[in-house]
Amino acid sequence: MFTGIVEELGEVVAVEQLTDASRFRLRGPLVTEGARHGDSIAVNGVCLTVVETADGAFTADVMAETLKRSSLGALEPGSRVNLERPMAVGGRLGGHIVQGHVDGTGTILKREPSEHWEVVTVGLPAPLARYVVDKGSITVDGVSLTVVEAGDDRFTISLIPTTLALTTLGIKQPGDPVNLEVDVIAKYVERLLGPNAQENVK
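The structure corresponding to this sequence follows.
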């Protein structure tokens, strides 16, 4: 379980292409401190399992399914990534409930800078639009954000200077892909209130 509050701006050190997967080595001295084999670290919002750590970096194997559903397949050595360790039990929930299970990818459509913040428009797949609402929460590349305005195929977010400086959202350009995770509570509510709602409550 994560909160979408990015702890560190890391970097891809190496990518090894395997038969049906990829092996990533990522540098992140903060998130690897105390990390062990089997621990989880979110990379651009994708929950990955640590294989090994050394010298402030960690290795993770990424399955074909994850590469297909996320933008991790576009990463290469030198790419910057958002890193977050799982939430500690009893800690503050600074963002919202994030699982690290990407629902799909979107695309940066437009950036509108202003004096103190920047408004970014993100395109999203039509099937995800029903889970995105004005003033609701969404995770973009692992960053917990509040939706300013939701549309049928896009939404807008306002980024404060801290988010621009400490996450990859400060360097993403129009046309760049981003990982999206919608609010899991909305998905559960939809399931419970769907066509089989009566059967679900028996």
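The first helix runs from residue 64 to 69.
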